[in-house]
């Protein structure tokens, strides 16, 4: 019995040290804000929010989402996966044509145990694909699953990226009822929020998703509350902070139009 216990402990030790090391390399959002390249919201009294979509483009849902956004004159930021852009480039071109922003969400949408070299490769490959079809290299990057630590943040910065998370999560990835998605956003939305949705659900053959069903209701509510929907880069640009020369602003702006303090 003692031998079984001893060997069980030996088997669990690597897992313990792995978890400890992972925890030790991950700091709070407040800690990473000191890099000046980490954002999750903007502190402002002006009624601006940034609507964002991850994981697309999707051949069915993204065009439907674009139609809903157009109805409310809403500009959004699409954090796209490079392997999806290759398959559906015309949809990405449509996003840009309609005034939306394209950002980097890695190539293969990898979650765990990613090295700095692999993440750099993922970012570079996706940048090249986006630039091929849109004509510009994105400055914004969102870690897959919202997972961040020293390795991810430092690698992103070395690759010239601004890391963007969110502070309002629709939780649409769990495919909850439409009412729940709507409630997740409308109950706590505030000026300067960055809101998370997903425009890829299921496979490319999936025909319905809760995000599309909920989006119109959410935008209608926010519109009636006086909110304006802007891209993430515009939300950041319309601030009192100095944006680096290498930071791509989309849509392009000549002058700052409001006073906003960044929270990053």
Task: Give a brief rundown of this model.
42% of the residues lie in helices and 14% in strands. It has 264 residues and is an alpha/beta fold. Strand 3 (48-54), helix 3 and strand 4 (76-80) form a beta-alpha-beta unit.
Overview of this protein structure:
The protein is an alpha/beta fold. It contains ten helices and eleven strands. The strands form three sheets. Strands 3, 4, 5, 8, 9 and 10 form a six-stranded parallel beta sheet that branches. Strands 1-7-6 form a three-stranded parallel beta sheet. α3 (61-71) runs parallel beside α9. Residues 2-24 and 251-264 have low confidence and may be disordered.
Please report the number of helical segments.
10
Oligomer: single chain
Average predicted confidence as pLDDT: 85
Rg to the nearest angstrom? 20 Å
Uncertain runs are: 2-24, 251-264
Beta-strand share of residues: 5-15%
What is the approximate shape? globular
């Amino acid at each position: 019995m003692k031998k079984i216990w001893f060997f069980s402990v030996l088997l669990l030790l690597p897992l313990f040290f792995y978890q400890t090391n992972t925890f030790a390399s991950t700091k709070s959002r407040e800690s990473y804000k000191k890099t000046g390249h980490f954002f999750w919201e903007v502190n402002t009294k002006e009624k601006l929010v940034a609507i964002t979509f991850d994981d697309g483009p999707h051949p069915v849902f993204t065009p439907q989402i674009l139609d809903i956004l157009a109805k409310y004159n809403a500009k959004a930021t699409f954090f796209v996966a490079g392997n999806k852009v290759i398959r559906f480039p015309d949809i990405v071109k449509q996003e840009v044509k309609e005034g939306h922003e394209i950002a980097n969400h890695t190539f293969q949408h990898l979650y765990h145990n990613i090295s700095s070299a692999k993440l750099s490769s993922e970012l570079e490959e996706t940048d090249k694909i986006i630039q091929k079809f849109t004509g510009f290299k994105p400055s914004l990057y969102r870690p897959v699953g919202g997972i961040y630590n020293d390795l991810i943040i430092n690698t992103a910065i070395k690759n010239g990226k601004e890391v963007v998370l969110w502070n309002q999560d629709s939780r649409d990835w769990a495919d909850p009822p439409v009412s729940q998605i709507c409630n997740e956003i409308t109950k706590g939305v505030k000026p300067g929020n960055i809101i998370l949705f997903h425009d890829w659900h299921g496979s490319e053959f999936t025909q319905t998703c809760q995000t599309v069903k909920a989006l119109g209701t959410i935008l209608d509510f926010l519109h009636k509350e006086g909110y304006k929907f802007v891209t993430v880069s515009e939300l950041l640009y319309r601030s009192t902070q100095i944006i680096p020369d290498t930071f791509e602003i989309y849509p392009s702006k000549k002058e700052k139009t409001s006073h906003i303090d960044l929270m990053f």
